[in-house]
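Human:
Class, as today's exercise, you are to examine the entry below, and be ready to discuss the fold:
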Amino acid sequence: MGGYVYMLASKKGGTIYIGVTNDLSRRVHEHRQRETGFTAKYGAIRLVWYEDHDDIRDAIQREKSLKRWRRQWKIDLIESINPEWNDLYRGIGW
């Protein structure tokens, strides 16, 4: 089974949340509906970066790695594909 690692942000240069899932559309939708938790507390609901993997285990390892990265490295990764931090949610089926 495949998986995704993704980053949500509150705004350009704002709070970044990193997660992993086997269904990116569903999971981002869930983040947007939550009234509690990290994404609700910090408003990190904008999908700004994601990566797909053929195996969920690879996605989990990538998530763990990214969570150890310095903030600037995460920003550089986001901006390498999404310099304006546009919300990519509409492009994944919603």
Observations:
- Strands lie at 3-9, 16-21, 46-53.
- The chain has a mean pLDDT of 95.
- The chain is about 40% helix and 20% strand.
- The first strand starts at residue 3 and ends at 9.
